[in-house]
Amino acid sequence: MKCRHCATPLDDALLDNVFLDLGTAPPSNAFLTANALSAPELYFPLKLRTCPRCLLVQVDEVQSHTALFAPDYVYFSSYSRSWLAHAELYVEKATSRLGLNSGSLVVEIASNDGYLLQYVAARGIPCVGIEPTTGTASAARAKGIDTIVEFFGLDFAGRLVAQRRRADLIVANNVLAHVPNLNDFVAGLACALAPQGVVTVEVPHLQQLVERCQFDTIYHEHFSYFSLHTIRTVFAAHGLHIWDVETLPTHGGSLRIWAAHSGSDHSDTPAVAAALAAEVAAGMLEMNYYRGFQARANAVKNELLSFLLQQQRDGRKVVGYGAAAKGNTLLNYAGVRSDLLPYVVDASPHKQGRYLPGSRIPVVAEENLRADQPDIVLILPWNLCQEVTEQLTYIREWGGRFATAVPTMEVG
Ligand SMILES: [Zn+2]
User: Fold this and answer.
1) What per-residue confidence (pLDDT) applies to 63?
2) How many A from CA of 15 to the centre of ligand 1?
3) 3-state DSSP call for residue 318?
4) Are residues 315 and 239 in the same domain?
5) Which of 205, 209, 261, 397 has its CA at a distance of 20 to 30 angstroms from the CA of residue 177?
6) The domain that contains 221 carries what CATH number?
7) Residue 335 belongs to what domain range?
8) How remote is the CA of residue 78 from the centroid of ligand 1, in Å?
């Protein structure tokens, strides 16, 4: 195995560079139909290493991305209200900051069902979405969003520029970590970007993942884990310069970087130097920072298991909320099955009636909660904790309580 960015060999045992080993698991978005329950599932190793040279934390590329993002991929962005609000605010900020208008072009990579570009289109700004999954792309087109079904990379970027033109703004939210060929993707960004254009990238921040022990955000489809230092290194290798950075609460703590061609007119804000200094102060340039994470992840897993076993002994019923990828990592690593967590509620009709990969816990509609009146609802996507708690506040009527497992077991 070689580093996805700098090609340094990574699998030498003497390197002591294992960041986290979660054993084996099926792809976290491979939800099962009832018919599939009688068939076996494919499990893949889930092990992360730190590159000693560029410090990129990365998972082995275990299978082709076309297999991971199957046509029946069930994640539709628009089903999360807080995510829509986040997208709308971003569009408001970016369009006014960059002075975008009806003569501009906005390109979004991994545009999903048009959750973000709908706000760009509403302002009369031309835009095009790039989305590899046909189901979500069809949903975007139904909203009137021009969408191309493709994986983004240098080759595609060249064709896009030839057919249309270079973009004034390229948006890549929560996709950089999912890109198997990182260098090709970033080279594509540089290729598709107008001389004074801007790329914004939102990516979970590794510093937050480590500090808050968010090991459940690790799954096969999530190949790379970035500090600002590593993104800066990767971007610089392709002639892109980061001139601003924001920290966001999304996905447990993300970075939003603003980049442009090196030598463009965009001048650096003080936030870039401040964020880089904070990473140095945290020790992120030293390999020691990346060791010892396994023990902390194991502690979270053990605490969840103890909690579920204790509730069962005490005769209390615990059910899950949120059939998200991070829940699947946690449940599979902890070995939780339907005897400890009989079902998981999810708002998306595309997931209801299916079963979680690996744990095979059924996904049901919210109506089940009122009928069943469980004692505790374990919220798996802790990043949506507040939204879910407000939405399900009625469980208090029968004395129901909420729980989260990461970074520590909390019941309230
Ligand atoms: Zn490297």
Assistant:
1) 56
2) 13
3) strand
4) no
5) 261
6) 3.40.50.150
7) 293-411
8) 35
pLDDT tier at 75 (50, 70, 90 boundaries)? low
Residues 201 and 235 in one domain: yes
CA–centroid distance, 8 to ligand 1, in Å, is 6
- Residues 267, 316, single domain; the answer is no
Whole-prediction pTM value?
0.89
**How far is ligand 1, taken at its centre, from the CA of residue 50, in Å?**
8
Structure tokens at 307: 């909690």
Tokens of 41: 């599932």
Domain with residue 373: its CATH number is: 3.40.50.720
Sequence-ordered list of residues with C-beta below 8 angstroms from that of 248, at least 6 positions apart, any chain: 86, 202, 254, 255, 256
Cα of 62 from ligand 1 centre, angstroms = 18
- Give the pLDDT confidence of 35-63 residue by residue, as tens digits: 999 999 988 889 999 999 999 999 876 55
| Lowest-confidence region among 97-106, 164-173, 214-223, 280-289 | 214-223
Q: How far is CA 264 from CA 183, 240, 255, 260, in A?
A: 21, 9, 22, 6
CA 128–ligand 1 middle distance (angstroms): 32
- 266 and 371 housed in the same domain: no
Q: Ligand 1 centre and the CA of 158: distance in Å?
A: 26
> Has residue 78 got a pLDDT over 80?
no
Same domain? 161 vs 207: yes
Instruction: Write out pLDDT tens, residues 359-411.
Output: 999 999 999 999 999 999 999 998 889 989 999 999 999 999 999 999 999 99
Going from the Cα of 49 to the center of ligand 1, the distance in angstroms, rounded, reads: 10
In whole angstroms, give the CA distance from residue 165 to residue 160: 7
Last residue of a domain, one of 241, 274, 290: 290
Question: Is residue 408 a contact partner of residue 303, using CB atoms and an 8 Å limit?
Answer: yes
